[in-house]
Specification:
The chain starts with 18 loop residues before the first helix and ends with a helix. The relative contact order is 0.10. The longest helix is centred in the first third of the chain and has 22 residues. The radius of gyration is 18 Å and the shape is globular. It is an all-alpha fold and 247 residues long.
């Protein structure tokens, strides 16, 4: 019996409107006094708005609000000529390109390996690639955009350049040593070294990653690849419990 990937916690529909206030904050931050600190504040506000838009509400709301944040970011890039906003815009475009393929008709997440890549938005990918090519300052937004670009260039999941993705995660860890970044590196690295090595790496980092639903979902996937079905089921159940836990 196949083991389904864990489901993400559903958020209240009303929460999907909050990104609108974030974009207003970003405009005020950048245009009032376009100093480096203001531009960074605008970038962080826009990224926060985009993350909320992609995490809340039904798929059509995710697409609409994500597009709103992208349009606001593009206006700020054209006005402020800020490198940090250019890398952010590339990241948003490359991420938003997959928005229609990320969820099924029941609003359940579709893992990357099972997404219909024909539904990825080619125009967003192409603009994201072009914006990323202009970036000279390789901050964490630029590295994350490069990660999204590697996925966007792969015509199939099997054709993904996992060694390049693992190398990018190693760079990202230097500027963003969060547990989520560490998890991303382990998962990418395991694609080249195999599930047994990946599982060992996850278990070595369990103290840091145990609170993440993605950690247990990754363990479940690797255990399943190794044929350890009961253990995989336990890991998926743990992942789902964390995903549905109250914040």
């Amino acid at each position: 019996m196949p083991i389904a990937p864990f489901r993400q916690k559903r958020k209240p529909a009303g929460a999907s409107l909050r990104p609108l206030s974030w974009t207003s904050r970003a405009r005020r931050s950048c245009w009032t006094r376009p100093t480096q600190a203001r531009i960074q504040g605008a970038a962080d506000a826009l990224f926060g708005a985009f993350s909320l838009a992609h995490d809340r509400g039904p798929p059509h709301e995710r697409a609409r609000l994500g597009r709103l944040v992208i349009d606001q970011t593009r206006r700020l890039v054209d006005g402020a000529k800020a490198e940090r906003l250019q890398s952010l815009l590339a990241l948003l475009l490359l991420t938003h390109a997959r928005v229609e393929a990320r969820f099924d008709g029941r609003n359940e997440p579709i893992p990357l390996e099972h997404q219909d890549r024909r539904r990825w938005k080619r125009a967003d990918l192409d603009e994201g690639f072009e914006r990323l090519a202009r970036v000279e300052v390789h901050d964490h937004f630029a590295i994350k955009a490069a990660l999204a670009a590697e996925h966007g260039r792969a015509s199939t999941y099997e054709g993904t350049n996992w060694s390049a993705i693992a190398a990018l995660y190693e760079r990202l860890i230097v500027v963003d040593g969060s547990p989520a970044t560490r998890l991303g590196w382990i998962v990418a690295d395991s694609r080249g070294r195999g599930p047994e090595a990946g599982l060992a790496a996850l278990d070595r980092s369990a103290d840091m990653l145990d609170a993440l639903a993605g950690f247990h979902a990754a363990r479940g996937a690797m255990l399943r690849e190794l044929g350890r079905v009961p253990d995989a089921r336990q890991a998926y159940e743990r992942a789902e419990g964390l995903a549905f836990a109250a914040p």
